[in-house]
Design a protein that fits this description.
Elements: H1 3-7, H2 12-20, H3 31-37, H4 45-56, H5 66-77, H6 84-98, H7 108-121, H8 131-135, H9 138-141, H10 150-162, H11 174-187
Helix pairs in contact: 5-11, 6-7, 6-10, 10-11
Family: Belongs to the LEA type SMP family.
Region (Disordered): 142-170
Biased composition (Basic and acidic residues): 143-154
Length: 188
């Protein structure tokens, strides 16, 4: 920077105007206080990526995304221990939401697979990991998301059925939530 730029006073009114364009975040800062102090803050990179991915994926207002459908499964079947069929359905949902063919390390599907493995070895129900433990905040854990469609619901349902010993789905589980979201989106 040139010496004249360093000596130039900061126009707080201009900075405040720019700061008002940045939304406050839960993790963030008390923006009212910062604006008074003329402090410039940056949006977190995760928040910015989520917003860009949501806009890129073409998700329109009022549609239910796959991530939101996974979060809805917490409300309907949150106390259910994660089984292999649930992990397969969650993996299928993540693959469809992100458009990637492999699962992300540390993502929702990886957590579900780990939980299913641990639950298979657990002796008591109190020690088992539930769907609520895995799926809470699922839409924020996905790097990108898209509106749930009938094809997505069919893929998730097929994955859950193939990995269930009785070839059925859980009535209020992951597949049911994605199917309900697809039906609502199709009606719009």
């Amino acid at each position: 920077m040139a010496a004249e730029q360093l000596q130039k006073p900061i126009d707080c009114a201009k900075v405040k105007g720019e700061a008002e364009k940045i939304p406050a975040t839960e993790k963030g800062i008390d923006t009212a206080e910062d604006k008074k102090k003329c402090v410039i803050t940056e949006a977190s990179s995760e928040q910015a990526k989520e917003e860009v991915n949501r806009k890129k994926s073409g998700v329109s207002e009022g549609t239910i995304t796959i991530g939101e459908a996974l979060e809805a499964a917490v409300l309907t079947a949150g106390n259910k221990p994660v089984e292999w069929s649930d992990a397969a359905a969650i993996q299928a949902a993540e693959v469809r939401a992100t458009g990637r063919t492999n699962i992300m390390p540390g993502g929702v599907a990886a957590s579900a697979q780990s939980a299913a493995t641990l639950n298979a070895r657990a002796t008591s129900d109190e020690d088992k990991t539930t769907l609520a433990d895995v799926l809470t905040g699922a839409s924020s854990k996905l790097p990108s998301d898209k509106a749930a469609t009938r094809k997505d619901a069919e893929g998730v349902t097929g994955a859950e059925m193939r990995n269930d010993p009785h070839l059925t789905t859980y009535p209020t589980g992951v597949a049911a939530s994605v199917a309900a979201a697809a039906r609502i989106n199709q009606a719009k």
